[in-house]
Amino acid sequence: MPRTLLPGQRAQLWVLTLDTGARRLVAESSDLLFEAPNWTPDGVSLLVNGDGCLFRVAVDGRTPLTPVDLGAIPAINNDHVLSPDGATIYVSCGDGSLRAIELVSARSRIVSNDHGPDFRHYLHGVSPDGLTLAYIGMRISTDGSVVTNVFTVPSAGGPDNQLTDDAFADDGANFSADGSTVFFNSERAATLPGHAQLFGLTLAGRAFTQLTDDERVNWFPQPSPDGRHLAYVSFPPGTLGHPADVTVQLRLLGVGGGEPRTLATVFGGQGTMNVPSWSPDGSQLAFVEYVQPH
Fold it and tell me: Which domain of life is it from (predicted)?
């Protein structure tokens, strides 16, 4: 079931300018819980999901949230990415599949492969050349236990490439700006349950690099278009998973690691910045905040 707003709560879509830290409100709703902004390559619009659907809004805030025709597909969640040319939206559907939809025609096709009813796909990234998708594959056993791993699959359809094969909790897989590395969050270095940190995995050589190592729980690395930075959502210490309705920090980190910079503190978490949210020129980030009633 799609998420809904709490009584009196409002969803707000913001754009943050990195150089100044200034925030500008783009859209707001007290009816629709929208999530996970994607920025169109022309820099004109943002796409968000809500109530199992997709919506478009102008970055300048001069148009309302407008439904995007996705054709006859199952409800989508907050794991969606745009192709580099902006012509196709790739989405994770409620039936566990990945689908590609042409935005002009609403024609759709299934991209993912059938791994059985206990397997679900959660999409987070597309390669810079548009040829490959990065996703998290989740297998749910009959006893309720869950195993997640990092995969890629051709955007045109084809065999999966499994990049990890272990019991560590992984999520948020996304390509570097040059396509050579997949960034993701993982508990592979955790000493406490849920203590996810950010990692990079080179596709040539399959070498892991840990990028964050602090007391906070770090999720959803989003590489900047120039390849210099990662933006991510940082949850409070002790957080399990990536829950909604908590106070989180949006942080910026150099791709080689180092000391992160906090860009904003917002009430959100799940839905705030699950997918690529950089402006095409890398000067701004889009995110969603969920304002509590007073």
Answer: Bacteria
